[in-house]
Write a structure and sequence with these properties.
alpha+beta, 7 helices
């Protein structure tokens, strides 16, 4: 969020992130983003704007959450290795008058064919445990994603699709102080092919 230039104050959102029985990923992220936004608003009822997000990793229709153990992280990383999966993020914006806007970003993520030794080193670092799918696209040491083959929103895979945030807040007449696509690309080192379409509302 610092890349946008907006001033933000983090607030807790104590929400059970367990998917409901039979709930598919797109619906789950929408429900959870909305629940988190309302939970955060209850903590700060006088906030001008509340923004919340929920990100889910999906592989062949199965939701992969945050691993509960090293063994589960190991299984997830082996499962995702060498082929694409999908990351879905929903964002919800609440205004003081009760208005609510929800948007969603979907990115196909090609994973590189990393080795078992690389998996073990990454797990040993402890970085896998708080990540959906047990990985982070921005991890410079592990580098699990085949970034040269990525054709979608990099920031979405990190957990917050910034251009979707911008276009949603623009619907409320709120413009970011910074050039968000440029700031995002500079920060990630990723030449984004989709930001113009996102900001136009095409994606």
């Amino acid at each position: 969020m610092a890349l946008t230039g907006w001033t933000v104050e983090p607030r807790p959102a104590d929400v059970d992130e367990t998917p409901q029985v039979g709930e598919e990923a797109h619906a789950a992220t929408r429900r959870l983003a909305q629940a988190k936004a309302h939970a955060a608003q209850s903590v700060s009822p006088h906030a001008d704007i509340v923004l919340a997000a929920d990100t889910i990793v999906v592989d062949h229709g199965q939701i992969l959450g945050k691993p509960s153990s090293e063994d589960e992280a190991r299984l997830m990383l082996r499962r995702l290795r060498g082929r694409p999966h999908t990351v879905v993020t929903s964002i919800t914006v609440l205004t003081p008058d009760g208005s609510s806007l929800t948007d969603q970003c979907i990115t196909d993520v090609p994973m590189r064919d990393y080795t078992d030794d690389e998996i073990e080193q990454f797990i040993a670092s402890g970085a896998a445990h708080d990540k959906a799918g047990a990985y982070a696209i921005q991890d410079a040491g592990f580098q699990p994603v085949e970034s040269a083959s990525l054709r979608g929103c990099f920031a979405n895979v990190m957990g917050l699709p910034l251009c979707h945030v911008v276009r949603t807040l623009r619907r409320l007449g709120i413009e970011p102080p910074e050039d968000v696509p440029q700031a995002c690309q500079t920060h990630t080192g990723y030449e984004c092919p989709v930001y113009e379409g996102i900001l136009r509302g095409d994606a």
